[in-house]
Amino acid sequence: SQTIHQWPATLVQPVGSPLSLECTVEGTSNPNLYWYRQAAGRGLQLLFYSVGIGQISSEVPQNLSASRPQDRQFILSSKKLLLSDSGFYLCAWSVRVQGNGYTFGSGTRLTVV
Amino acid sequence: AQKITQTQPGMFVQEKEAVTLDCTYDTSDPSYGLFWYKQPSSGEMIFLIYQGSYDQQNATEGRYSLNFQKARKSANLVISASQLGDSAMYFCAMRVYDYKLSFGAGTTVTVRA
């Protein structure tokens, strides 16, 4: 069965510090991978998505970047965090077939102080 | 561009009663998928139900049903026989040809005993 792992669950980082959030998927090959961010009480905003190794598309200009060094690994990074980077970050995967939903990781709650 | 609108920020429902959550969408793509997700306070995103744009019948999954009105571009979620555990935030989402999932702002449902 397919599973998705995302860590850490919570993170408190000072302004200006770097960030690295990791997401890995098991039980599937060549998935689409996604990073979403959710502000408190709000909907999900798509940040990045990837259809293959090294292929990253950015949805919004921001202080963050993403990388996909392996087929089932997706990393969200920042060189210097801003206060506005605080939020709930969710990784997700899907297969490239209409009719299949996304499977989400358990999320990382990031607080930049 | 695709757009999902959820106009009900919050709703209260009595236990064992039914509740309808509104969702309207906008897309020019003839092939699309509509999803509903539940997000409890823990933050996880739980897939509830899916409706394809070419599906002739409304989707049902247990106590969840999707009232799909294609001409009106609406995809309302009906939860029957509400339970205390249904208290959560509910998101409507849409995917078109590019496999990116766009979310509405969400509706918070509170079930009262």
Q: Brief description of this entry?
A:
With 113 residues, chain A is mainly β.
What does this structure look like?
The complex is a heterodimer of chains A (113) and B (113). Chain A has 113 residues and is mostly beta strands. Chain A has no helices and eleven strands. Chain A is globular, with a radius of gyration of 13 Å. Chain B is mostly beta strands and 113 residues long. Helix content of chain B is 0%, strand content 52%. In chain B, the strands form three sheets. In chain B, strands 2, 5, 6, 10, 11 and 12 form a six-stranded mixed beta sheet that branches. In chain B, strands 3-9-8-7 form a four-stranded antiparallel beta sheet, with no helix packed on it. Chains A and B meet through strand 5, strand 9 and strand 10 of A and strand 5, strand 6 and strand 11 of B.
Mean of pLDDT of chain B: 94
Terminus-to-terminus distance of chain B: 41 Å
Shape of chain B: globular
**Helix-strand pattern of chain A:** EEEEEEEEEEE
The tally of strands of chain A reads 11
- Major sheet of chain B: size, sense and barrel closure? 6 strands, mixed
Structural class of chain B: mainly beta
| Ends distance of chain A | 38 Å
Molecular shape of chain A: globular
Largest sheet entry of chain A = 7 strands, mixed
Descriptive keywords:
heterodimer; A: 113 residues; mainly beta; 4-stranded antiparallel sheet; 11 strands; B: 113 residues; 6-stranded mixed sheet; 12 strands; 52% strand; globular
What secondary-structure arrangement, pairings included, does this model have?
The complex is a heterodimer of chains A (113) and B (113).
Chain A: E1 3-7, E2 10-13, E3 19-26, E4 32-38, E5 44-52, E6 55-58, E7 65-70, E8 73-78, E9 87-94, E10 103-104, E11 108-112
Parallel strand pairs in A: 2-11
Antiparallel strand pairs in A: 1-3, 3-8, 4-5, 4-9, 5-6, 7-8, 9-10, 9-11
Chain B: E1 3-5, E2 10-14, E3 19-21, E4 24-26, E5 33-39, E6 46-52, E7 60-61, E8 64-69, E9 74-79, E10 88-95, E11 101-103, E12 107-112
